[in-house]
Write a structure and sequence with these properties.
single chain; 442 residues; alpha/beta; Rossmann fold; Dihydrodipicolinate Reductase, domain 2; Alpha-Beta Plaits; ten-stranded mixed beta sheet; elongated; binds NADP nicotinamide-adenine-dinucleotide phosphate
Amino acid sequence: MPRTPAPVSLVSSFEPFRIGVAGLGTVGTGLVDLVQKNGDLLMRRAGRGIEIVSVSAQNRKKDRGVDLSGYEWVDDPLVMAQDPRLDVVVELIGGSEGFARALVERCLENGKAVVTANKALLAHHGQALADLSVKTGAALAFEAAVAGSIPIVKVLREAFSANKVSSVCGILNGTCNYILTEMRETGRDFADVLKDAQDKGYAESDPSFDIDGIDAAHKLALLSAIAFGVHPDFGRVHVQGIRHLSADDMDFAGKMGFRIKLLGTTRKINGRIAQSVTPCLVPADSPIGAVDGVYNAVFVESDCAGSSLLVGRGAGAAPTASAVAADLVDLARGTKMDVFGFPQTSLESAQWADAGEAVAKFYLRLNVADRSGVLADISRILHRHGVSIESMIQHARDLRGPVPLVMVFHETLQKDMEAAIKEIEMLESVDKPSCLMRIEML
Ligand SMILES: NC(=O)c1ccc[n+]([C@@H]2O[C@H](COP(=O)([O-])OP(=O)(O)OC[C@H]3O[C@@H](n4cnc5c(N)ncnc54)[C@H](OP(=O)(O)O)[C@@H]3O)[C@@H](O)[C@H]2O)c1
């Protein structure tokens, strides 16, 4: 008679995967909570338990709403880099310099794996950190650094590894998307909605990183690296934020069938890469046009998979912790990826394209004196630069001051468009600043 095999325990007999968590703010406490709540699931997925050994933050006395009593408290997170009990250090302090940078460097130098959500650090020092990771063999993983819970790093690096990507375009900052959505839905101006977002905790007291497009640009530099196999270069992202947008712009865009989104775009133009973070118009009835509020979205175009859109929560405690935990499960399983999805030595120095080389349709709002001859002057300049108007909205007469004149243009070279606007803005009948936005037909 055949012998009955011994039951196989679902609980692995492997050693637990031991982690140190540096930083117990929004994401750090979110991770502690997730490990406590979903520990059994993590163990089943990873084949071994994921165990927090030590934690660190600045203020030991702060009530963080999670139970930290089972973990060792470390005042100086750099100690974690030397702790032989830890398989990985999770860096959730933030910032491109200071403690976060020192900790990640020290860990990698010591051969200790790092998981981080720190896009600022990677956008500025990703290349050097990836080199260190190769040198010592220590893993460096950062799914949570780009678009929170949307697994775009994994998708580009693994699921789309057989695809030649032509562009990646995304709503990469939830704060901006919330502000733009509120402006559109309520007709209120930027400053008013920003204050409201700050009161609700959707925007920082110093919101400049978000609303000036810096945060999105950090993420975009990382997306370029993974999509195209190039060294990340934050300095080559053309960045414009959303401060200058008016309630009128939201209104006009809507009337023309568009919505305004702050888009991070990296695309190949004749073999060169153009990176930009700028407010753009997208068709209101397109999938990305429907992504509102604090949600993020990433649209990828590639040769085999075609067009793909991923939508999800780009920030917040649980969504970001979810992405951090996914990296932890990978490492606990023994899966280690090249930092940017290509062997480090095969990463290329990109040929960067100038933003002006992009060909697109454009939206332009001018504030013009309401008198005869103005439109003829503007048309003459546009014609001289080879820019042709597709549609136009002219506001009702107002003899007291300038009125908005809104135009949408057929496809044209961005640098021709910009040259025309420069000349138009010199007309005595046109008030500065005007507002130019690319139209992305996603
Ligand atoms: N928040 C999000 O939704 C989100 C989304 C995606 C990515 N990220 C990234 O995740 C990282 C963390 O963001 P967060 O929002 O969680 O930041 P946070 O709420 O400001 O938390 C930062 C934590 O770091 C601790 N800290 C600061 N300096 C320290 C030091 N020298 N030693 C030890 N701990 C120190 C702080 O301690 P105290 O609490 O004692 O002050 C705090 O617990 C950042 O890189 C951020 O860009 C955040």
